[in-house]
Amino acid sequence: MIHTKTYYSTQIPYQDRSLLIEGPITRESLDAYEFHNELDSFRPAVKQKEALLEIAELPEGRINVVVDDRTIVGYVTFLYPDPMERWSEGNMENLLELGAIEIAPAYRGASAGKTIINLSMLDAAMEDYIIITTEYYWHWDLKGSGLDVWEYRKVMEKMMGAGGLVWFATDDPEISSHPANCLMARIGSNVDQESIQQFDLLRFHNRFMY
């Protein structure tokens, strides 16, 4: 499968200036930016930037970013699912996972999350994919946000909904381990019925629950 990527950009107001939201960006563009030191939800910021640089080199990898001056203050990644996850079992070339989204705490009131998700879906090539995201409450910044798990889930659903992702049922053990966890997905308009059926089989291993 040929992974075509069309660059888009927009700006949103933030305090007395504007934030640039752009992507998918190249490894070289990513490396030229500074990386906000509070983008550390998944690993230390330096290590997180290294991980993003690796994703940017993947044929299917997409990195979209939120930039304040020359500093990345938010990002979202799209790539093939981890080989250890059930979502990789079908070896589907047209299934991508929204692997991570993170906005630095000081910028979370600027609608950067919804805007970057929306921008990510502007590329016509995204209609060729099933896009999934697995939401686990233990990844959420409950302490920093002051929200409980259900309030935070509503925030996540609204943000993902900006890109057309909706809730899908699944019997995946990790997702099923807590009622706030969920699978969300967007099925592109060019995805064939066979791929949709294959996705259904990935969602349910216990066929009687299907």
TrEMBL record:
Pfam families: Acetyltransf_1. Residues 34-120 form the N-acetyltransferase domain. This is N-acetyltransferase.
